[in-house]
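REVIEWER CHECKLIST
Item 1: Sequence provided? yes
Item 2: Single chain? yes
Item 3: Sequence as submitted:
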Amino acid sequence: MTGAKGSALAAVVLAVGLTGVLTACGPPSGGAMGVTVDSLGRPIGVLEVCEGHIDGATLYETPTSESDSSDRYRGEWSVAPAVSSSGRFDLRRGGGDWRAKTPLAALRPGTSYTLYGWTNDNSWSLGGVEFSPEDLATLQPGQVRYDAGLHADEDNPPDTTATMPIADFRSKVCP
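Item 4: Structure as written out by the authors:
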């Protein structure tokens, strides 16, 4: 095919191919991150891995419309061996198999943060949870805050953050 028909067909093929590449950006989500607090109100990362594994977690300051995302990382942790089920770690110091690659920077009042999980080979991720220091102050030990919109249903529409007992977190995230 040559001429206008051939050019049109080539354009359609290119557009379809690019759409597939652009919509496939990022690794698939294999579960969810949450956040809780210990008995002293210090932040603890909580994760549920339904598929795959997780090698670490990153906390960043959630960009606002007037800011960009550069230089907004506030903490990074790695874990070995990789987590393929449930896990928890202290955001201030890691602990257990979790090591702080970048120690937690001070959380500023009135600022939103996002905690998410990742793999070294980019094969899996965990849906992030957004929270602020004020949100942490409302949590009790044993409660987890997570992005319920990751598993949207009639009780949890998209972009909904929920709090539930940690004991129920896995059954909600990994049905």
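Item 5: Key structural point noted by reviewer: Helices lie at 3-23, 133-138, 166-173.
Item 6: Recommendation: ____
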